[in-house]
Amino acid sequence: MPAPARIALGSYQHVLAERWQTMTAEWAAIRRGLAIRRAPHRPPRGGRKTRRHRPILAPASSISSLAGTLVVLGMGVALAKAERERRAATRARMARRTSLLVGEPPAVGLRRVLLGQLEVAIELLETLPPEDRSEHGQRTVHETRKALKRLRALLRLLRPTIGEKRFKRENAALRRCARRLAGARDAEVMIDTLEGLLRAHPKLADPRRTGGGVQRLRAQLLAELDAAAGTDQPGRTPLEEHRAIAAELRAIRTRVADWQLRERPGKAPAPSAPGLEHIYREGRRRLRRARRRGDRDALHAWRKRVKDLRYAAETFDRGPAARTSKSGARIRRTARRADRLGEMLGEEHDLALLARLIRRHAEHFAGDKRTRKALLKLIARRRKQLRRRALRDGERLYRRKPKGFMRRLRAAL
Predict the structure, then answer these.
(1) Quick one: pLDDT band at residue 8, thresholds 50, 70, 90?
(2) Could you write out the three-class secondary structure of the chain?
(3) What is the pLDDT of residue 19?
(4) Is the pLDDT of residue 1 over 60?
(5) Residue 349 — very low, low, confident or very high, per pLDDT cuts 50/70/90?
């Protein structure tokens, strides 16, 4: 409980004690005045005629004291209720925290994070109107997909523990849910990528200079965005599609809640350590393939494993208390570098998709091939810069062999 709340409750307890003593004395006087144990025909003791009977009703001061006591009691109850709600909110927030808590066993913590992210995705799907195209709606869809990506990374962490069969079933289910949300999000990303390119080069956005080809391309993207609001299932509305995805996530949550994850006895590594080593080794292997091939597919495949490494490292970042250690600082540094690398690879992938879209819709630039050529040239130049920086940062992130990488992080696991 915060210090101000403890001081307030202490002062209220002192006031209540004083009120109780005053009321006890006044009630005793009232009972004597009522003369409950005396015969009804006898006057009170000390029967002088000059002595008047004591009043039966409580004096006005007692009534005001009682009112004040009730006010104090009401304030105490309100404070207690607020404290109870605050503690419940804290427990709910800790249950949905995306990283392990200090001193929390990895197996218990990973299942807690899994269940919390499933709850987040389900709530976002149930509260977001499918036709919402505002900035809030786009951010909500993005947060839902990010929760699904984090869930798949956590499954890879637990892959050696839960078994290959269970991993493939849950990973396939989460991949289906993510793909059903991908259509509208991909169209929004293409619009944002095009507008970012136009902000950097405003001359291309002037229809008097370009002939309106860029505006026609943007209108095409908006039409694809509206079409993506539909569903692949015939006869099913977008709202029904969201509810179907939420129902599938609830089924996954029920299965995850039944998992029996136990820590390994002795000095064996935590259940998540083999999974983290596999994620790191896979990212290192795909870095070599991306360096050798350099095409869009190789870079995109590498980006997936970089994202997995970021989410895995963020999961083991146990907070400020654990960052003072060397292993905790290394975990946080790994997550930060993987996040930055993933953003670069993501931008490169988005530009590659935009270039393909421009080539596919060449009819929008009929009579204005110069603008189309300028756009493709700008995209190619930016992609080359991003690839060079990504490969450089990737070499830095994956410079150690998997065994050496795990030795440096062992204390944080």
Answers:
(1) very low
(2) CCHHHHHHHHHHHHHHHHHHHHHHHHHHHHHHHHCCCCCCCCCCCCCCCCCCCCCCCCCHHHHHHHHHHHHHHHHHHHHHHHHHHHHHHHHHHHHCCCCCCCCCCHHHHHHHHHHHHHHHHHHHHHHCCCCCCCHHHHHHHHHHHHHHHHHHHHHHHCHHHHCHHHHHHHHHHHHHHHHHCHHHHHHHHHHHHHHHHHHHCHHHHCHHHHCCHHHHHHHHHHHHHHHHCCCCCCCCCHHHHHHHHHHHHHHHHHHHHCCCCCCCCCCCCCCCHHHHHHHHHHHHHHHHHHHHHCCHHHHHHHHHHHHHHHHHHHHCCCCHHHHCCHHHHHHHHHHHHHHHHHHHHHHHHHHHHHHHHHHHCHHHHCCCHHHHHHHHHHHHHHHHHHHHHHHHHHHHHCCCCHHHHHHHHHHHC
(3) 67
(4) no
(5) very high
Whole-Å CA distances, 35 to 23, 56, 61, 62:
18, 10, 21, 19
The pLDDT-based confidence of 5 (bands split at 50, 70, 90) is: very low
The reported pLDDT for the residue numbered 44 is: 52
Residues 19, 67 contacting (CB under 8 angstroms): no
